[in-house]
Write a structure and sequence with these properties.
Elements (H helix, E strand, L loop, with lengths): L7 H8 L8 H10 L12 E5 L6 H14 L3 E5 L6 H14 L5 H19 L27 H14 L9 H4 L8 H11 L3 H8 L1 H17 L5 E5 L2 H17 L10 E7 L5 H4 L6 E5 L5 H10 L5 H11 L3 H9 L15 H6 L5 H9 L8 H7 L7 H9 L4 E4 L2 E4 L1 H14 L1 H22 L5 H4 L3 H17 L1 H18 L1 H17 L3 H29 L4 H17 L3 H14 L4 H13 L3 H14 L4 H13 L3 H14 L4 H13 L3 H14 L4 H13 L3 H14 L4 H13 L3 H14 L4 H13 L3 H14 L4 H13 L3 H14 L4 H13 L3 H12 L12 H12 L6 H19 L1
Length: 907
C-alpha cells in the first residue's frame, strides 16, 4: 500500500510541534547525521550541545529526540534525576522498556546492586589496622605486617567513621565519596569484602560501572540489531557529566567494558563545552553545537507562534529577555495582545513573567515558591500562602509553568527566573522575606527532627534524607537571619567535613547560594572561600579556613583541630596528625576523642608507650568508654603487658558483653598468656556474635596452630578468605598455614595474590620467600626476601630467613651480616645465635662459633630456652668437635645442656 503524502498543513504543524522555533542549523545537522552510515567518515557519534542557562538546550534535545524517533530510533534521555551511574543506566533501561526493548539482565543486576548497596550502607565499616606480629610467633607477620587490630575495628563501628577516619566508597559516594581510611583504600575494600557475599558484590558496590557497563553494552547490542539507530541523550551535563563524562569516554573510545554498537549516537547538553583534556583528540567523531540566545528573527518567530504579534509588546519582550529562550517562552506563554499591558518599561523581569496572570493567589504562590531551592508538594504547602484546599490544584498549576522543570519527585525553578524572583521579593519586603525564610527553616527543622529519630549522632551525617533536610533548614536560616545563623551553620560545616568532601561541598555551596540570594556579602565570601579551599586541599584546607576565620570558642577550635588530625591520619600523615591533636588538646585538655585519636597516630609512628599514656588520660576522662579500653588493651598487648591488657579487656567485656571485638581481643590476649582453652572460648563467642568478623577467624586459626589442630587452622582461614578474598593480610595468613602443612603450591598462590593486592606488603614477600626456600627454590626465595627488606629494613624475621637462604647457597658473609643486624635489633632472639654459629664455622672461625652456641644456650646452670633450633645447636656442637684443637670439655658441657633442654621440653 502506497503511503499517503503529508499535506502542507501537516508539515507546518510538525515543524511547529511544541511551539519549537529556531535552531534550524542544529536540527538539520543532527538529522543529516542519521542519514549517514556509521562507517561513513562524515558520520558523528557524539553531539555536544552547550550554552548558558536558559538558552534552550533542553528544548533542543527534546526536539532532537523526536527527530530520532521519527527515523525509527530507540531513544533514552538521562538528566540530573540520575544521581549516580546505576541510576542513569536504570533510566535508560526503563525508557527502552517502554519502547518494547526490556533490558532483563541489566534490570536484574541493578536490583542486586540496590540490595548490596543497602547492605553496605547498613554494615559497619571495619578498619583493618595492622598491629604487627606483636606476639612474636614467627609466622612472617612482624611489626608492620598490616594485620588489623580488634580495637581499630571497634573504633570504626562506634563512630570514628562519622569522624572522618574511615572513608566511605562507591555506595558511600554521596556521603562518604573522598574520605581516606587510616590504613588505605585497599584495606577498606577488604573490610567491605568481609561484609558482602562475593568479590563481585564488592565490585558491584565499590565499582558498579565495572559490573554493570558490560551488561548495558550487551543489552544495547541486542537492541541495535533490531533498530536502525539508538540515540542516548544526556541533559544538564554540567551536573550529570561529573559522574558520566569519564565513563562515557571509556565506553566510546576504549574496549575496557566491551563493544558499543556502531549505530549508537550520543547527545550531551550542558552549560560548558566538552573537556578538551579528555575529548580534544576526538574531533573526528564529535559535533560541537554551541547555542547562543535567539536571534531577533527566532525570538519573533516564537512570539508569533504564541500569538504575540503586537510590535510594542514584541519589542519590550526582546528588550527584557535579550533573546534568552526561556525568558522569551515565559513571557510569550501569557500571550499579551495590548501594548498597554506592557506597562512601565523599567518594570522588573519578574513582573513581566507574571504580569498576565490575573489570579492573585497564583501570583503569590509562584513568588513564594521561588524561595526554596527545590519543591515537592510538602514544601509547596509550607512556602505558598494559599488556602489549604487549593494547595494540590495550585501545585499542579505551578508544575506546568514553563520555567519549572521536574527533577524526580521534585520540581525546580529555572535559575534565571528564580534569581529574578528572589531579588524582587527581597527588595519588595525585606521583613516579609526574612519571615518567610524563617517559616521555611522551621518546617524543614521539624521534618529533620522527625528524620533523625532513631539515628545516633554519628549516623545522621551518613543519612541522605537527614542531610537534605538539615541543608535546606540551614539555607533558609541563613537567608532569613544571616548574622544570627552563620555561627550555627559554620559549626555544621565542621561536622560536614567529618562526613567527607562531597558533603562539605554541599554546605559550602549553601553558604554561597544564601549569600547571593540574600545579598549577604559575608555569607557569599564564606561560601567562596570554603569552596576554594575544598578544591585546593579538601576538608583539611576547609577546616583550616574555619580555624582561621570563624572566631570559634576554644572548645570548637579544639574540635576543628581534632577533625584536621583525623583527615591527616586518613592520609597516613601521622606526624602532622599528632601536631593537630596537640593543638586540639591545647585548646581543650578535656577532649577525650583527641587523646584517643592521638594514641592511634602515635601507635602508627611506633610510639606505643606514648599511645598508652594518651589512652590512660582518655580513660581518666571517660572511664567506661568501651572503645578506649579496647584501644588501650590493644596497645598494652603489643607492648607485651599482657596482664594489664587483659584487665582492660575484661572491663570492656563487662561493660558490653555482646561486643564481638572485645571478646576477640580478650581471646587473643589469653592466647598470648598460654590460656588456650579460654582463648578459644572467647573467640568462639566473638564469632557467634559476628560470624563475618574476619579478624576473629584469623586469630582463632592462630590458636588452633598453638593447639596443634592444623586442619581446623586451615578451615578457619578458608572461611576468612571467603569473607575477605581481597585482603592481602588474610591471604598471607592462609599461605603461612598451607606452608606449614607442606602445601607449597597452594601457599604460593595465596602469597602471589597478597602481593598483587598490596605491592608494598613486606610480610607477603618474606613469607613467600620462606615458602620458596622450603619448596627448593632458593633463587626466588632470595629475591623475595631482598624485596621484603627493601620495604622494611628492620624486619627481623625476614633477616633470619634470608640468612638461612644465604647459608644454604654458601654466602656465609652475607648470612653473618644479616644475623648481626638481627641481633642488634633483638639481642634476645635465641635461634639467631645458632644460625650465626653456623655462619662463623663456615667462615673458619670455630672459636667464635663456639661462643655463639654458648650465647644461644644462656649462662649455666639455667636450663636453656626451648626452641626448634635445639637440634641445629646439637648438630653444630658435633661439627665443632671435629675441628682440630676444639675445646672438647666445653663442647661436652654444652651438649649436656642441650640434652637437659630437650628433656625439659619433652616433660
Amino acid at each position: 500500500m502506497v503511503r499517503r503524502r503529508a499535506s502542507m498543513q501537516e508539515l507546518i504543524r510538525d515543524r511547529r510541534r511544541h511551539g519549537f522555533i529556531g535552531r534550524a542549523a542544529e536540527r538539520a545537522a543532527f538529522r543529516a547525521n542519521l542519514e549517514l552510515a556509521p562507517e561513513d567518515e562524515r558520520h558523528r557519534f557524539l553531539f555536544h550541545v552547550h550554552g548558558t542557562a536558559g538558552v534552550g538546550k533542553t528544548f533542543l534535545i527534546r526536539e532532537l529526540e523526536q527527530a530520532a524517533r521519527d527515523r525509527g530510533a530507540l531513544t533514552a534521555l538521562v538528566d540530573e534525576r540520575a544521581e549516580d551511574l546505576p541510576e542513569a543506566m536504570a533510566a535508560i533501561g526503563e525508557q527502552f522498556a517502554r519502547q518494547g526493548h526490556r533490558f532483563k539482565d541489566l534490570d536484574r543486576m541493578l536490583a542486586t546492586h540496590r540490595e548490596r548497596r543497602h547492605e553496605a550502607e547498613a554494615a559497619v565499616l571495619e578498619t583493618l589496622d595492622r598491629d604487627g606480629n606483636a606476639d612474636g610467633d614467627g609466622s612472617g607477620n612482624g611489626d608492620g605486617s598490616g594485620e588489623p587490630s580488634a580495637a581499630s575495628l571497634t573504633v570504626a563501628r562506634m563512630g570514628v567513621a562519622g569522624a572522618g577516619l574511615i572513608p566511605v566508597v562507591g555506595p558511600f559516594a554521596g556521603a562518604l565519596d573522598a574520605e581516606r581510611v587510616a590504613a588505605g583504600v585497599d584495606r577498606l575494600r577488604a573490610g567491605l569484602s568481609a561484609r558482602l557475599r562475593s568479590r563481585e558484590d564488592v565490585l558491584l558496590v565499590l565499582s558498579p560501572e565495572r559490573v554493570l557497563t558490560p551488561l548495558l553494552l550487551g543489552e544495547l547490542a541486542r537492541a541495535a540489531e533490531q533498530t536502525p539507530w539508538i540515540v542516548l541523550f544526556f541533559d544538564t551535563y554540567e551536573r550529570t557529566g561529573r559522574l558520566l563524562d569519564g565513563w562515557l569516554h571509556e565506553v566510546m573510545t576504549t574496549f575496557l567494558h566491551g563493544e558499543l554498537p556502531a549505530n549508537v549516537v550520543v547527545v550531551t547538553a550542558g552549560q560548558r563545552p566538552l573537556d578538551t583534556a579528555r575529548w580534544g583528540g576526538h574531533a573526528d567523531f564529535v559535533t560541537d553545537l554551541p547555542l547562543e540566545p535567539f536571534t531577533e528573527a527566532e525570538a519573533r518567530g516564537l512570539l508569533a507562534a504564541r500569538g504575540v504579534t503586537a510590535e510594542p509588546v514584541v519589542a519590550e519582550v526582546l528588550r527584557l529577555t535579550g533573546g534568552l529562550p526561556v525568558l522569551v517562552s515565559t513571557l510569550a506563554e501569557a500571550r499579551p495582545a495590548d501594548p498597554d499591558d506592557i506597562g512601565d518599561p523599567s518594570a522588573t523581569a519578574v513582573e513581566r513573567f507574571l504580569r498576565w496572570e490575573d489570579d492573585p493567589v497564583r501570583r503569590a504562590a509562584a513568588l513564594a515558591c521561588a524561595l526554596p531551592r527545590s519543591l515537592d508538594a510538602d514544601v509547596f504547602r509550607a512556602a505558598a500562602d494559599c488556602p489549604p484546599d487549593a494547595a494540590d490544584r495550585l501545585y499542579g498549576w505551578l508544575r506546568g509553568l514553563p520555567f519549572v522543570t521536574a527533577h524526580g519527585d521534585r520540581v525546580r525553578y529555572h535559575d534565571v527566573v528564580r534569581s529574578a524572583m528572589l531579588r524582587s521579593e527581597r527588595l519588595r519586603s525585606p521583613r516579609g522575606w526574612a519571615q518567610r525564610h524563617t517559616r521555611l527553616a522551621e518546617a524543614f527543622g521539624a521534618w529533620r527532627a522527625e528524620a533523625e529519630a532513631g539515628l545516633g549522632p554519628g549516623e545522621r551525617w551518613a543519612d541522605e534524607a537527614w542531610l537534605r533536610l538539615r541543608l535546606a533548614e540551614s539555607y533558609h536560616l541563613l537567608c532569613g537571619a544571616p548574622r544570627t545563623a552563620l555561627s550555627t551553620v559554620l559549626q555544621d560545616v565542621i561536622d560536614a567535613c567529618g562526613a567527607g568532601e562531597p558533603v562539605a561541598r554541599r554546605w559550602a555551596q549553601a553558604l554561597a547560594d544564601a549569600g547571593r540570594d540574600a545579598d549577604a556579602a559575608g555569607l557569599a565570601v564564606w561560601g567562596k572561600e570554603l569552596l576554594r579551599a575544598l578544591a585546593a586541599d579538601g576538608t583539611l584546607a576547609a577546616l583550616g579556613v574555619l580555624l582561621a576565620r570563624a572566631g570559634f570558642t576554644a572548645r570548637l577550635r579544639a574540635v576543628v583541630c581534632w577533625r584536621r588530625g583525623t583527615v591527616l591520619s586518613g592520609r597516613e600523615e601521622h606526624a602532622r596528625a599528632v601536631d593537630e591533636f596537640d593543638r586540639a588538646l591545647a585548646f581543650d585538655p578535656g577532649l577525650g576523642r583527641a587523646y584517643r585519636a592521638r594514641a592511634v597516630a602515635r601507635a602508627r609512628l611506633g610510639d606505643r608507650t606514648g599511645a598508652v599514656a594518651d589512652l590512660d588520660r582518655a580513660v581518666e576522662l571517660e572511664p567506661d568508654r568501651v572503645e578506649t579500653l579496647l584501644l588501650r588493651g590493644d596497645q598494652r598487648r603489643v607492648l607485651g603487658a599482657y596482664g594489664e591488657a587483659l584487665a582492660d579487656l575484661d572491663r570492656a567485656v563487662e561493660l558490653d558483653p555482646a561486643s564481638a571485638p572485645a571478646r576477640a581481643a580478650r581471646g587473643v590476649t589469653r592466647h598470648l598468656l598460654g590460656r588456650l582453652e579460654e582463648a578459644t572460648a572467647d573467640l568462639d563467642l566473638a564469632l557467634e556474635l559476628d560470624p563475618e568478623f574476619v579478624w576473629a577467624w584469623v586469630r582463632r586459626a592462630r590458636v588452633w596452630r598453638s593447639r596443634h589442630r592444623e586442619e581446623r587452622r586451615v578451615a578457619d582461614l578458608d572461611r576468612a578468605v571467603a569473607l575477605g578474598p581481597d585482603s592481602a593480610w588474610v591471604r598471607c595468613e592462609r599461605g603461612d598455614a598451607l606452608t606449614a602443612a607442606g602445601r607449597y603450591e597452594d601457599a604460593l598462590a595465596d602469597y602471589d595474590r597478597a602481593v598483587a593486592l598490596d605491592g608494598g606488603y613486606a610480610s607477603a614477600y618474606a613469607s613467600r620467600g620462606a615458602c620458596r626456600f622450603r619448596a627448593g627454590r632458593p633463587d626466588g626465595a632470595l629475591a623475595d626476601l631482598d624485596r621484603a627488606l627493601e620495604l622494611e629494613p628492620a624486619y627481623g624475621w625476614a633477616l633470619y630467613r634470608r640468612a638461612e637462604v644465604r647459608l644454604h647457597t654458601g654466602a656465609h658473609d652475607g648470612a653473618l651480616t644479616d644475623l648481626d643486624r638481627l641481633l642488634d635489633l633483638d639481642g634476645g632472639y635465641a635461634p639467631a645465635h645458632t644460625l650465626r654459629g653456623r655462619a662463623l664455622l663456615g667462615l673458619g672461625r670455630p672459636a667464635e662459633a663456639l661462643a655463639a652456641v654458648g650465647r644461644r644456650l644462656g649462662p649455666p646452670p639455667s636450663v636453656p630456652p626451648a626452641g626448634p633450633d635445639l637440634d641445629e645447636a646439637a648438630d653444630l656442637i658435633e661439627a665443632l668437635r671435629a675441628v682440630p684443637g676444639a675445646d672438647l670439655p666445653e663442647l661436652g658441657r654444652l651438649a649436656d645442656r642441650v640434652a637437659r633442654a630437650r628433656e625439659a621440653a619433652g616433660a
